[in-house]
């Protein structure tokens, strides 16, 4: 069934890992007849978590689109992973969501995942609600969580659905605060009951808190509130809608995904109070000339869609998209704004987990998928050729955790490379680089779980066993003293021999590249052999004499030598230059240089002591601290890259996931003697292993 844009709601489920997002989605599908059984994460049979890795690990790894039909509305639930290693999936969902639902469990207080979800929605100015899950579990405490949320985020947080609990603190039902009606679930159905007499006072307290928040949505309502006049039901709903839309109000719901308690009232709220795509602002982008523009959410406008996710499996490639403007129909030919090429929308689908339903059209504001697009990638804009526009890109976080990846069986490097290339179509949040200097393939992602999942997928999908190990650091070498040495190459082997003889001065240079000059008098080395000498030195500086790392800041001056009119050749002088290099550099005070990076760490004030102490242990130099004005501090430091291999995981551990950082190379510095000795020993061990 096709729905018009005003009856569509695109809602992103956000929250910490294990908060109950997938279970809530399962409850919604089951109670709206979207599925014929209530799946459980522990049983590996939910609609949302269908990938083999998700079933094995019992966590969500990928964003899943779950369309729900309810009361004449279509609700596209976007179930996102709660683990921070998969924040790229959350970024994709937020790019096309019109609102967010933060799922927060009734025990354990406000988690980091809740804080991050709020921050994501705040940054994107998206309307939101909070669903307090697992209210019927032992030690669940709705009141404690609600008051913690209100203390942290202010009076904008207001109760709409609250639980009824008995003397044993067991939740037995829920109260719709707006209507002041109570319900319980019997045999999977919602049944109205009387509000228990001992709960009337608490319900009144919640009702008054809600009315206070509604009053703040307009001056008219504020006057009415202070005059003591009661709001009508229609005024309350109108106030709630306005407050949610302008972000001054965040309704709180609650329930249990297992029993279905609270699920249908939540759906009522999402469809009646939350904005449709038409109520959201125009989407920013750039036109064909690269100038800033906007695309209005317009059912009658030229066709335009944003591809926000790609899935590749044994059945082919699916590109998930949201229709921003116009309507997408079968066989429509669209222009890819990035490539300039055309793509035919051959078969289009609505996806529910892994199940696809082919349709003829997908209207403005709706979410669907198309099979077998040729060149389209995640983040691309497909549009009408008459109005080519690139919508704003998905803001993926910079990957920050690097490991070298290699096959357990030698010779399968190409298999790993092509497998990772395919996987990057699905997950653009990681990167792969073949580092020619360290001779390693380096994969960089958000953390260790993401990289471990990539290795599992390489084995399951592409049949290659991959291992991870810390990536090598690209050191450099330089000299500190000036030396003058001879390089003499003489070889007689019947017929013409080989003869080259040079005297070269080596000294510290001013530029990273080798500086080669000649200062010869009398033609002791003919000019036609000078390029060969330079070539021999340029090849030699690729391997230093300490640990085999490239030599930088080296100046070499050819000052003398001799030649043989018959036996001298370019090859002989090239060899003589390399002999001079090998003889001279050990005498010139060689030293190892390590790469230094500029680090910017953003953390809450309360973690500053731990962060500074940790940076000191990593040989870091703190350059400054700047408050952000939102309770965070940005610590700027310079730290050796060799000390940063595990920083992404360590920072997460130190700050419970609240910290973030960026790290970029700035320059090379001399390595302390103790560190230098260890690097040299490790390099020799690597050479002995034949790598």
Automatic annotation (TrEMBL):
Limits of the Tr-type G domain: 6-278
Pfam families (alphabetical): EF-G_D2, EFG_C, EFG_III, EFG_IV, GTP_EFTU
Stored SUPFAM superfamilies: EF-G C-terminal domain-like (SSF54980), P-loop containing nucleoside triphosphate hydrolases (SSF52540), Ribosomal protein S5 domain 2-like (SSF54211), Translation proteins (SSF50447)
Keyword GTP-binding tagged: yes
SMART domains (UniProt xref): EFG_C (SM00838), EFG_IV (SM00889)
GO BP field: ribosome disassembly
Coiled coil segments of this chain: none
Keywords: Elongation factor, GTP-binding, Nucleotide-binding, Protein biosynthesis
Molecular function per GO: GTP binding; GTPase activity; translation elongation factor activity
InterPro entries: EF-G-like_DII (IPR053905), EFG_II (IPR041095), EFG_III/V (IPR035647), EFG_IV (IPR047872), EFG_V (IPR035649), EFG_V-like (IPR000640), P-loop_NTPase (IPR027417), Ribosomal_Su5_D2-typ_SF (IPR020568)
Name of the protein in its database record: Elongation factor G
């Amino acid at each position: 069934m096709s729905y018009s844009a005003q009856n569509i709601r695109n809602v992103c489920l956000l929250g910490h890992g294990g908060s109950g997002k997938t279970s809530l989605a399962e409850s919604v599908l089951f109670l709206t007849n979207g599925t014929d059984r209530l799946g459980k994460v522990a049983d590996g049979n939910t609609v949302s978590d269908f990938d083999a890795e998700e079933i094995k690990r019992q966590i969500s790894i990928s964003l899943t689109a779950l369309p729900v039909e309810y009361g004449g509305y279509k609700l596209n639930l976007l179930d996102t992973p709660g683990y921070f290693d998969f924040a790229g999936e959350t970024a994709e969902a937020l790019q096309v969501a019109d609102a967010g639902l933060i799922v927060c469990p009734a025990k354990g207080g406000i988690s980091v995942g809740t804080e991050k979800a709020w921050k994501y929605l705040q940054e994107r100015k998206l309307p939101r609600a909070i669903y307090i899950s697992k209210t019927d579990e032992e030690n669940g405490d709705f009141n404690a969580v609600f008051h913690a949320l209100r203390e942290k985020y202010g009076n904008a947080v207001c109760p709409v659905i609250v639980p009824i609990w008995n003397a044993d603190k067991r939740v037995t039902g829920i109260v719709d605060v707006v209507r002041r009606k109570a319900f319980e679930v019997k045999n999977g159905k919602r049944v109205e009951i009387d509000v228990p007499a001992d709960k009337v006072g608490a319900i009144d307290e919640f009702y008054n808190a809600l009315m206070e928040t509604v009053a703040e949505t307009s001056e008219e309502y504020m006057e009415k509130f202070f005059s003591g006049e009661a709001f009508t039901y229609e005024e309350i709903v109108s106030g709630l809608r306005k407050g949610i839309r302008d972000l001054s109000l965040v309704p709180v719901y609650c329930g249990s995904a297992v029993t279905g308690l609270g699920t249908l009232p939540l759906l009522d709220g999402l469809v009646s109070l939350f904005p449709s795509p038409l109520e959201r602002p125009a989407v920013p982008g750039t036109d064909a000339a690269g100038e800033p523009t906007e695309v209005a959410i317009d059912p009658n406008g030229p066709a335009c869609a944003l591809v926000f996710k790609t899935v590749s499996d044994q059945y082919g490639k699916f590109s998930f998209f949201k229709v921003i403007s116009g309507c997408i129909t079968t066989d429509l030919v669209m222009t890819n704004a990035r490539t300039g090429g055309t793509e035919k929308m051959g078969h289009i689908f609505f996806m529910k987990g892994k199940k696809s339903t082919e349709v003829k059209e997908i209207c403005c504001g709706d979410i669907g998928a198309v099979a077998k697009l040729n060149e389209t990638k995640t983040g691309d804009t497909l549009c009408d050729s008459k109005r080519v526009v690139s919508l704003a890109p998905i803001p993926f976080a910079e990957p920050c955790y690097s490991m070298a990846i290699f096959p357990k069986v030698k010779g399968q490097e190409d298999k790993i490379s092509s497998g990772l290339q395919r996987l990057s179509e699905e997950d653009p949040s990681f990167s792969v680089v073949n580092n020619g200097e360290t001779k390693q393939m380096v994969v960089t992602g958000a953390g260790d779980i993401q990289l471990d999942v990539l290795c599992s997928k390489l084995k399951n999908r592409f049949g290659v066993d991959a291992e991870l190990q810390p990536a090598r650091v690209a050191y450099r070498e330089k000299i500190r003293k000036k030396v003058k040495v001879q390089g003499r190459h003489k070889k007689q082997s019947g017929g013409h021999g080989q003869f080259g003889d040079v005297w070269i001065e080596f000294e510290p240079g001013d530029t990273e590249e080798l500086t080669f000059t000649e200062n010869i008098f009398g033609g002791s080395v003919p000019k036609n052999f000078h390029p060969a000498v330079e070539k021999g030195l340029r090849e030699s500086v690729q391997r230093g004499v300490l640990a085999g790392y490239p030599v930088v800041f080296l100046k070499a001056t050819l000052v003398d030598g001799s030649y043989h009119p018959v036996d001298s050749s370019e090859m002989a002088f090239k060899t003589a230059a390399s002999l001079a290099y090998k003889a001279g550099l050990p005498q010139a005070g060689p030293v190892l240089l390590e790469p230094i990076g500029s680090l910017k760490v953003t953390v809450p004030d309360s973690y500053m002591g731990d962060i500074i102490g940790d940076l000191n242990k990593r040989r870091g130099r703190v350059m400054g601290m700047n408050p952000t004005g939102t309770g965070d501090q940005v610590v700027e430091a310079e730290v050796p890259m060799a000390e940063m291999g595990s920083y992404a995981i360590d920072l997460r551990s130190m700050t419970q996931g609240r910290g973030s950082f960026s790290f970029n190379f700035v320059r090379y510095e001399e390595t302390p003697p103790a560190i230098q000795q260890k690097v040299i020993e490790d390099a020799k061990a690597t050479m002995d292993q034949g790598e």
